[in-house]
Design goal:
Layout (H helix, E strand, L loop, with lengths): L2 E4 L2 E4 L1 H10 L9 H25 L7 H9 L9 H6 L19 H35 L10 E5 L16 E11 L3 E5 L10 E3 L3 E3 L30 E12 L2 E10 L8 E3 L1
Antiparallel strand pairs: 1-2, 3-4, 3-7, 4-5, 5-6, 8-9, 9-10
Length: 277
């Protein structure tokens, strides 16, 4: 096809010359701009229906090598590109020796975005690694791995202990010592409780323990201790025999409810009245 006559001159179209031995079709239309513009489109349809169906629609049937080579490599004089490149934007199954060095490269905007995104990912990964290392150092400064062993004596925190009597503010922070009978992993310990704590569960996390150090007085023979002052016991003298009960009340002493009575004694005035349990 594509031998176009214009005023007695023959214009050769490379696309048509390449397709002539393949299609076995010859056409000599008179020169017409519209016809010339439709020629590549016409052959693209032929490519789609006649040749390309063998490779895309029925790949098991195969494609003749000359057909595929011509479809990929022969350039059209109107478009300046091969039919495959015009239709698809790239040459499918193109051998390496037919690659063109002047093909369009990646768009600069997309390339810059890719580089920017890669730098952002690298910076984020570096920042996360530095943050993890900083947190590890801060944690290691104030937290040490427990080194308890079976048979050690430890003190147990009373933070979550609700079986002790008395006001919570007046309780000891730690009680004990208790003996470790079993290590449960590296984060839990089982101890033996005394009778007072028999209702308490015996397994605790290591964060609620601290080691118990016995007093070694023999190492410090010159250390002086303040003598314990003797307990002062007030002996109240009974003013006499109770005559009658004036009033009653209920108060709480050492965590227990206690009832008291205001009594008046015989042969005594009102200022001598006392509360008795």
């Amino acid at each position: 096809m594509t031998i176009i006559y214009k005023k007695g001159k023959i214009l050769t179209n490379e696309h048509g010359l390449g397709r002539w031995p393949l299609d076995n079709v010859k056409s000599n239309p008179a020169y017409d701009p519209d016809v010339a513009a439709k020629i590549p489109i016409h052959y693209m349809e032929i490519d789609r229906k006649k040749y390309f169906r063998f490779s895309e629609w029925a790949p098991e049937r195969g494609t003749p090598g000359t057909v595929q080579r011509a479809y990929n490599t022969i350039h059209n004089s109107t478009t300046g590109n091969a039919s495959a490149l015009v239709e698809k934007g790239w040459n499918p199954l193109l051998p390496v020796d037919h690659l063109k060095t002047n093909l369009p490269t990646i768009k600069p905007t997309a390339k810059n975005f890719h580089e920017m995104w890669k730098r952002a990912c690298d910076t984020a990964a570096k920042s996360i690694a530095e943050a993890n290392e900083y947190n590890k150092q801060r944690w290691d400064k104030s937290n040490m791995e427990p080194d308890f062993k079976e048979g050690d004596q430890v003190l147990v925190s009373t933070l979550n202990c609700n079986i002790l009597k008395g006001p919570k503010k007046m309780r000891d922070s730690f009680v004990g010592p208790f003996i470790i009978i079993k290590l449960i992993g590296i984060n839990a310990v089982e101890v033996i409780f005394t009778e007072e704590f028999s209702r308490k569960h015996q397994v605790f996390p290591v964060s609620l323990f601290k080691p118990y150090f016995q007093k070694e007085e023999y190492k410090f023979p010159f250390r002086k201790k303040n003598p314990t002052p003797p307990e002062i016991v007030e002996v109240e003298e009974s003013p006499g025999t109770v005559q009658k009960i004036m009033q009653a009340r209920k108060i709480r002493i050492n965590g227990k409810d206690q009832r008291q009575y205001l009594v008046r004694f015989k042969s005594q005035t009102a200022d001598k009245d006392k509360w008795l349990a």
